[in-house]
Design a protein that fits this description.
mainly alpha
Length: 327
């Protein structure tokens, strides 16, 4: 048997996770596709019965009857959802294995370059989704989590990959595990929040254009209402923003220990503060009377664009004290 190194086993785990998550994404997509016709029939049937009985198009309360979450689902849709969830859990475990094996190979917490940051970020995103799905029905969200995670893992293994190596002297600190871990966790939650924000904007436009829940097109009928999606978007950012605030503060403390100053106008420092400012503006707009929820969500998406630029552009093309992409 060929003797594989821990780094090679880690890469194999990541490749395997990508294959499993691809199947999970397809299963989640099949769930959304197969559940729609039943939802249409279940919503329209009570209306037809009321019209035939001369009772108008809605119950006495003024709102159309809404079927239960699962009773109206065809067996094929429920099976697809179950398979998708099981594969997502398996893919999560494989990503965790890839991170652990990488850590064992380098004898440190694996956050020393862009590749390691990407796979750890993917791990935290999946863990957050799986943990959240144990508390509420998030089958409709699966495809919108596994899809972005697959893109990140694909870029990590093909574009950002770096061989296992020792850390730069400035990174050999306990603050690597504290500062960068919390940063990665907050980015993971921001990623879920961005997916929810995009879905909210689409759902809100469809509801406004087509007359509410019964007028939404395609699989969007299976998702929560625009109001529900906006609340979930806000909830995820309420969790992520304090973690990013801690990231900025912890980074300043680490900078003082490593370079003798809390603030050095390094490109990464500046962009971290820009991200904090944009997300603070979103939360302020969300809590301010007179601001449209749609406009506030657009600000949150601008914050996520800043996160992407900070990782994929500043790390690669800007030279500074944080130039440790490994590429």
């Amino acid at each position: 048997m060929t003797d594989l190194t821990l780094a090679q086993l880690s890469n194999l785990s990541v490749y395997s996770a990508m294959a499993v998550l691809t199947l999970a994404m397809l299963a989640h997509g099949l769930y959304l596709a197969r559940v729609v016709p039943a939802r249409e029939a279940a919503v329209e049937a009570p209306e037809r019965e009321l019209v035939a009985a001369g009772g108008g198009s809605a119950p006495a309360g003024g709102a159309p009857a809404v079927p239960s979450e699962k009773a109206d689902e065809p067996a094929g849709a429920r099976k697809a959802a179950g398979i998708g969830h099981s594969l997502t859990v398996l893919g999560t475990l494989l990503v965790v294995a890839g991170v652990v094996l990488r850590a064992l190979e380098v004898h440190r917490w694996p956050l020393g370059n862009m590749y390691e940051f990407a796979i750890v970020g993917a791990m935290f995103t999946l863990l957050a989704y799986v943990a959240w799905s144990t508390r509420r029905d998030l089958r409709w969200l699966g495809v919108f989590v596994t899809g972005p995670v697959l893109l990140v893992l694909g870029a990590a293994i093909t574009v950002w990959y770096t061989d296992a190596s020792e850390l730069m002297p400035s990174l050999r600190s306990v603050w690597l595990a504290i500062h960068v871990t919390v940063a990665t966790m907050s980015v993971a939650v921001f990623t879920i929040g961005a997916s929810l924000g995009i879905l909210y904007l689409i759902q809100d436009r469809l509801e406004a254009r087509e007359g509410g829940a019964t007028g939404r097109a395609a699989f969007m009928r299976r998702l929560p209402s625009a109001k529900g999606l906006e609340r979930l978007t806000y909830a995820t950012h309420i969790v992520a923003f304090p973690m990013w605030t801690f990231t900025v503060i912890a980074g300043a403390i680490w900078a003082r220990q490593a370079w003798g100053s809390y603030w050095n106008w390094d490109p990464k420092e500046v962009w971290s503060f820009v991200i904090w400012t944009v997300y603070a503006a979103y939360l302020h707009a969300r809590a301010t009377t007179g601001w449209k929820r749609q406009n506030a969500v657009w600000i949150s998406l601008a914050g996520f664009v800043c996160v992407l630029l900070n990782f994929a552009v500043v790390n690669v093309f800007f030279v500074g004290q944080h130039s440790y992409s490994g590429m």
